[in-house]
Amino acid sequence: MKTTESFKELQHKSTKRLAVWTMIWVLSTALATFGPEMLWENSLYTYAGVALFLITGAAMILANRKHILNLDELQQRMHLEAMAISLGVAVVLGLGLSILEQQDLLGFKMDFAFMTIVISLTYLAGLAINTRRFK
Questions:
Q1: Are residues 59 and 78 in the same domain?
Q2: Exposure on the CB side of residue 86, measured as CA atoms within 13 A
Q3: Could you tell me the sign of the dihedral formed by the alpha carbons of 37, 43, 45, 48, in that order?
Q4: Are residues 129 and 105 in the same domain?
Q5: Which end of the chain is more exposed for a tag (fewer CB within 10 A), N or C?
Q6: Residue 38 to residue 35: CA distance in whole angstroms
């Protein structure tokens, strides 16, 4: 007879699944990024690496969605608010920096990796603030 999992066990399992898919996606990102420079010269392998990156990215997105659905309402709200802030910062800051770059007024070359770091740090900060705020 199968016992029902507690809420905490479901959250732990969901978090672990998300961590595994995130790690797989990060590794596929590294492979797609550095493979053409260090491992192969054939563009077919690069297409395959990018396809792997997209597939594992989709799996990570689905794992993230499932993880959020397994949270309680307060935790979902905390994540939603953190996501809203990080989306807003990404759009406003990204467009502002893009305008400066178009006018050659930006002192560095803005790329997507920079914005990914900004989005990630904003999300983590928003989540930390919400965790402290709602305790």
A1: no
A2: 21
A3: positive
A4: yes
A5: N
A6: 5
| Helix (H/G/I), strand (E/B), else coil: 103 | coil
- Is the pTM for the entire model greater than 0.90? no
Tokens of 34: 């550095």
The range of the structural domain enclosing residue 119 comes to: 72-135
Same domain, yes or no, for 80 and 26?
no
Half-sphere exposure in the Cβ direction for 75 (13 Å, CA): 9
User: DSSP letters along 33-86, please?
Assistant: HHHHHHT---HHHHHHHHHHHHHHHHHHHHHHHHHHHTS-HHHHHHHHHHHHHH
